[in-house]
Amino acid sequence: MTNHYKNILVAVDGSKEAEYAFRKSLDVAYQHPGSKLNIVNIIDTHFLGPLDKELAEEVKEQTEQTLNRYKARAAAFRVENVNIIIEYGSPKIMIPKEIAELVKPDLIICGATGRTPVERYLMGSVSQSIVRSAKCDVLVIRTPA
Q1: Taking Cα atoms as reference points, which of 126, 133, 45 lies closest to residue 87?
Q2: Where are the alpha helices (DSSP H) in 77-109?
Q3: Does residue 25 register a pLDDT over 90?
Q4: Higher pLDDT, 51 or 21
Q5: What is the rounded CA–CA span in Å between residue 53 and residue 37?
Q6: Which residues form the signal peptide (predicted)?
């Protein structure tokens, strides 16, 4: 029996790995007609330091532009039921716990790595956190060799 994914969440952060995860999410959504694709980006407040409202607003505007480009690409791929989500906080906490609780996905897709090796060592991997905490299937995408 194959899974029919009706509600897909893909985490993007602007990295090359996230681009591959987004492409895979299009494939999965296209193969499951009528499914909803939720594209999420968590603006990591750890990197903003003390939250400067101007800087935060600028980052949010850039993120909205990026996610709207993803949404347009999804429409061009004939995936039309697309929702974009932008929040502030820690991606490794927000995605598997708060966003997943809100969206109730049956599949989460994310890149294997998105941060630098030093950041992963100090802060932990977002994908590891998603795999450990998610209550649904998780597909972790690696970039081609």
Answers
A1: 45
A2: 91-93, 100-103
A3: yes
A4: 21
A5: 30
A6: none
